[in-house]
Design brief:
The protein has about 250 residues and is mostly helical. The protein contains 11 helices and 2 strands, in the order ββααααααααααα. The protein has a two-stranded antiparallel sheet.
Length: about 250
């Protein structure tokens, strides 16, 4: 940032850096480099040794830390005019430090949250693998597998939903299984009884026209879902319901 300073009747364009880089203030006189005029302003020849400007300082330090560059520079110019060069830089340095501390704290907090989220995901993944291993071990026992098949078949005959079956297995047998495993076991149970197994997908498409008719008649969503479950023993998820709803609107 170039700040115009007046000494007597002469105007000089000055460049500054903070004490973080040098104890002296860098002065670059663009109109006339008059040694006497510069010294009269209180600067010695050592002030020419640094080439870092406030703008460069802002770009390398302030912006990377997330500070508002325009705000910093406008504050610096205001403080120079009000309190002089040295005090202005001291005040701006304090402001930068506080702002940087706030930004760094926010950054550290976000890192901490990210680490916590990763740990939760990692723990969930490990738990899932553990449950898969337990379910495979239990289901590899023919007698236990048959017992669980019977349990699922009877519960499904009572129109228990898949979420209820998952919870029931965890409560009564002490392990979790995926819905695809439940489907496989139900299919085995139906085959033993000579019954044709119908998946949720097949159930939906077999009765989609009925579902679309209910929606077209003005029946509310909750009522549609409840009736479908009562009649066909299947709880419609969002995907199936929205598919039927789109078709009802097209008709």
């Amino acid at each position: 940032m170039i700040v115009t300073a007046k000494h007597g009747e002469k105007y000089y364009k000055l460049k500054y850096v903070t004490r973080e880089y040098t104890d002296a203030i860098k002065v670059d006189v663009e109109y006339k480099k008059m040694k006497g005029g510069i010294e009269a302003l209180g600067f010695g020849s050592s002030n020419y040794t640094k080439e870092i400007t406030v703008m460069e300082h802002a770009e390398t330090i302030l912006i990377k830390k997330g500070n508002d560059k325009e705000k910093i520079l406008s504050l610096l110019q205001y403080e120079i005019e009000k309190n002089g060069y040295v005090k202005a830089l001291e005040k701006i340095d304090t402001y930068i430090y506080k702002e940087t501390e706030i930004i760094e704290n926010m950054y550290m907090n976000s890192l901490e949250e990210e680490m916590k989220e990763k740990e939760v995901k990692k723990a969930f993944k490990l738990e899932s693998k553990k449950q898969e291993s337990i379910s495979r071990k239990i289901l590899s026992n023919p007698e236990k597998r048959k017992e669980i098949r019977e349990y699922l078949f009877n519960k499904r005959a009572e129109k228990c939903l898949y979420d209820d079956l998952v919870k029931g297995l965890e409560k009564d047998f002490g392990f979790k299984v995926h819905k695809t495993t439940i489907n496989r076991l139900l299919k085995e149970a139906c085959k033993e009884r000579g019954i044709e197994y119908v998946s949720n997908s097949e159930m939906f498409f077999n009765h989609k026209d009925v579902l679309v008719g209910w929606i077209k008649s003005g029946m509310q969503k909750d009522e549609v879902i409840g009736r479908f479950n009562d009649i066909y023993g299947m709880q419609l998820n969002k995907y199936y319901y929205s598919m039927a709803e789109r078709e009802a609107k097209r008709c």
